[in-house]
């Protein structure tokens, strides 16, 4: 993990990053940068029925997407391989079903954060009549989505 801090030099203060080894979460050129992306600049990502995904940022080990989940959508069972999933509900509400038999449920709503550990088989549900918008960050390597037949399936 890079150490980010403010260094004092003979001149004005400047932000510095101490890199002891390459950090795959940084942009490919490894340099310090600030990027902004407007909603109109998002790039289409692989989507599934009822879920439209758009890429916000992507590096070798980090993919951030905005997902729009249509009302009444239940995705198929899947997991995210070796990736950690961190999310924030921008708008709406939904649920994630998971567990060895799929019987556990975690509910989320506007302003809440969630985490899904690598390999956790689950499905996403929007049981409402309104669209749910979620910002999701996939951290790690390998496929972002692995579809499976259900809980207990590989």
General description of the model:
With 154 residues, this protein is mainly β. It has a single domain (39-147), classed as Jelly Rolls (Sandwich). The protein is 0% helix and 45% strand. It is built from no helices and 13 strands. The strands form four sheets. It has a six-stranded antiparallel sheet, with no helix packed on it. The radius of gyration is 18 Å and the shape is globular. 15% of the residues are buried. Mean pLDDT is 84; it is low at 1-21. Residues 1-31 are annotated as: Disordered. Pfam families: Cupin_2 (PF07883).
Our Rg estimate from Cα atoms comes to 18 Å
Total strand segments = 13
Given this structure, which CATH class is correct?
Mainly Beta
The largest sheet is:
6 strands, antiparallel
How do the strands line up in the largest sheet? 3-4-5-12-7-10
Provide the number of structural domains. Answer: 1
Gap from first CA to last CA: 31 Å
User: Strand percentage, roughly?
Assistant: 35-45%
What is the CATH third-level topology name?
Answer: Jelly Rolls
Structural class: mainly beta
Q: What would the principal axes of the Cα set say about the shape?
A: globular
Could you state the order of secondary-structure elements as H and E? EEEEEEEEEEEEE
Contiguous helical run count: 0
Mean pLDDT: 84
